[in-house]
Amino acid sequence: MTVHESVDRHADRSTGQSGDLSGSTGSEPAPEKGAKSDLLAGRSSRGADAVFRSATVAAGGVIVALIALIAIVLVMQAAPSLMANNVNFFTSSEWNTTNPDDLRFGILDMFRVTVLSSIFALVLAVPVSIGIATFLVQYAPPRLSRSLSALIDLLAAVPSIIYGMWGLIVLGPWLVPLSEWLNRNLGWIFLFGDGNVSIAGGGTIFTAGVVLAIMILPIITSMSRETIRQTPSLHQEAALALGATKWEKIRMTCFPYAKSGMIAGSMLALGRALGETVAVLIILRAASAPGTLSLFDGGFTFASKIASGAAEFNHPLPTGAYIAAGLVLFILTFFVNLIARSVSGGKVNG
Known about the structure:
This protein is an all-alpha fold. It contains 11 helices and 2 strands; from the N terminus they run ααββααααααααα. Helix 3 runs parallel beside helix 6 (205-229).
């Protein structure tokens, strides 16, 4: 018997069984009942879809409305103080809000310290985080990878006040010799030039940046690790089949595939660094002179300045000055996340 004859016999047998089955179902009304049941089930499913869609749209709308409401309240609270301000809000480093009748506040110094410490932390954290993520996915044995991943994730659970105390008491004094060496040998670079506070003690942007880098390291590492892990195995096998080494395979397949995830994680970490309050407040030393662009400056970030001035929140005008500073931080963080979304293309990988 040929293959075709076998197939024909099987088809005939199936047809016969089907006929028997249809005959055993009886008369015509059975399919009509089934069709009505399917119709009712379809209507019920469409109704559930509409309810679920409305609920998700409402949830998304709540977030948008909440953000808009926060922005409106900040503007309304800050406007009277900005109108009573006697110096330029954007170009002045002076901050004196003790006399409501003579408000003099500007954000230039806070903006400089906030951006400099956050960018420095990001520069330190990104290469280390990507290196750790690559090691965990591509080189480490599975058991070691799971243990190290859990350990790194635990860094995100450490309270920021612990980081601040550790940075002030332990890390700061450790970094003093390195800071002095950089200032002595690379002081011709503006980042390592003389600042407005003494290097001794470590209460500088340099120390705060290192602590911030450790704090944002889990965010970048976890997002980079997951996006590298999602690289299709076919892409990696194709690179190896073409004769690429392991490093070339990682460079040509994993990194391009995970690029958008790495960028999104970095920008998310930058937003975290911009808004950090307690650790920076503990570490940074107050400066009597306006800052420069040196890592050995002191001063306040937006968040630490607002936290340190809570005692002045007993009068609308001084309170409004701090709210105006918070509004700038809000806009700055919003634009950082907007840039991250546009750079990453609105997707995690690809």
